Amino acid sequence: MKADITIDCIGLYCPMPIVNTTRQMKAMQRGQVLEVVADDEGIKQDMPNWAKMTGNEFLGIEEEDGKYRVFVRKG
Amino acid sequence: MAEKEKMTLILFSGEMDKALAAFNIALGGAASGMDVTIFFTFWGLNVIKKNEGGIKSRGVMRNMLNFMNRGGAKRLPLSKFHMMGMGKSMMQGLMKDINFPQVDELMLTAKELGVKFIACTTTMGMMGIGKDAFITGVDSYAGVATYIAEARQSKINLFI
Questions:
Q1: Helix/strand/coil (H/E/C) assignment for every residue in A14-38
Q2: Is the pTM of this model over 0.90?
Q3: Do B31 and A22 touch (CB under 8 A)?
Q4: ipTM of this predicted complex?
Q5: Which of A1, A10, A14, A27 is an active site residue?
Q6: How far is the CA of A26 from the CAs of A71, B28, B31, B53, in angstroms?
C-alpha cells in the first residue's frame, strides 16, 4: 500500500502511537493516507478502533517480523 | 460538526502510577476526539503542583502539611514498592526502557491535545494551597457542582 506520509512509532507503547497519529493527522488533508510503523501489538486493535471513533478510514495492516505497518485514510 | 463526546476523570490519588493511568486514559480520549476534563482533588492536587519552590499558607498545621506533602509531578511516589524512592527510580528506568513518557511529559501532551484541568477549591482551602502553587496548565478552580455538570454529560467517568 502507498502512503502520503509515514510516521515511525517503533519502540513506543500505548497511548503514544495513537497520540502521534492524532498529531500527524491534524496536519494532513482529507483523503491522504498515513502509514504508522509500530511494534506494539496493541496497535492491531487500537488503530481500527481509533479510526472508527474519529471518522477516519482504517485501510489495513501489513505485519512482518514483529513490525506493523498500519494504514489510515484521513476522513 | 456535532458536539464532541465527553470524558471526565477524577484524580483523587497523588501517586505516580495512578497519575500515569489517568493521563494515559485522558490522552486516549483526547486523541479519539473526546472533550476530556480532569478534576484534581485531595492528593491528586499534588500532580499539578509546581516542582519548584515551597508552598506558603496560614497556620502551623497547614505549613507542616505542605512541607511533608510537597507534591509536584516529579515528586510523586509509587503506590507500591516505592521503597524510599528506590522502587520509583527503578520503575522510571523501566519506563525509559520502553520510551514511555514521565508524568510531566504526559501532562504537557494532555494540554497540547486540549485536556481541561480543574483544581478542587475545597481541598485547596482545607490544605491551604494557593493558586500560585500550581502549574500554568490549570484551566479553572471549582467545586462539585462543576464536576456534576460535566460528569452527567460524560460517556466515560472514572475515579482514580
A1: CCHHHHHHHHHHHCCCCCCEEEEEE
A2: yes
A3: yes
A4: 0.86
A5: A14
A6: 16, 16, 11, 37
